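Good day; I would like, with your permission, to put a structural problem before you. A protein sequence and the structure tokens that stand for its backbone fold form the material at issue. I would ask you to consider whether the tokens describe a fold that such a sequence might reasonably adopt. I set the record out below, with my sincere thanks for your time.
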Amino acid sequence: MKIAIVQPTTVESALRNTEKALESGSQVVLLPEKWVKTLDDLPLAEFQRLAVKYTAFIVPGAVEDEVSVISPIITPRGQIAGIAKKIHLFGNEKGKLLPGTTLYYFTVNGVRIGIVICYDLDFPEVPRALFSKGVEVLLVPSKIRREGMDKWREYVRMRALENRIAVVNANAVELPNFVGGSVAVVPYRRGEIVDVKAVAEMGEEDGFVTVDIDPMSYFHLRLDRLKELVQFSVEELSTG
């Protein structure tokens, strides 16, 4: 499955690079969180037109709509199949926005793809809930500051490793504070252990990258992890 990460600096470059990615055969395109300021700035109709023209899914990032942080999912028919909402609000989002309460996934050619918005990835319960529904690829629009990038990459890698799924992250570019660095990682077997490798990585440039992700390459890793999960309880010991 071909998935494109678009890392734009303007509306024009977002549409231009999205179309280039679609021309190259991408079936799914992901953009970052808050690469535009408001929902009114998001060229939603143009993305819908491109989705129809190239029969592809487009997740045009995540943006504030004055109520929540939302991420529309555009289908190859140009319809908005659903709107994912950020569940864990961050920083100044708290108090002025409402958190989401539902996670969403969709299916492309038999592959289940879930969406997690930025800070939600910090909480392992969120990707795990999607993993438990059979999600094989996680799309993550984000806007991470320069000083947080090292830790952010650890979150991306760990969520892929602990769930044995691919994680595709589109991170915003808004120099000097937000530095891009979008990445896609997949799990793989390295000898006797399971590891994670980057299959696509961007710098601070305005542009796009296309990655070919084959969920069958880690199907057995994911299946084994599912089989290993057991139910357990947590209880407090009486020490008095």
Q: What stands out?
A: The first helix runs from residue 11 to 23. The chain has a mean pLDDT of 97. The chain has five helices and 15 strands. Helices lie at 11-23, 44-53, 125-131, 149-163, 219-228.
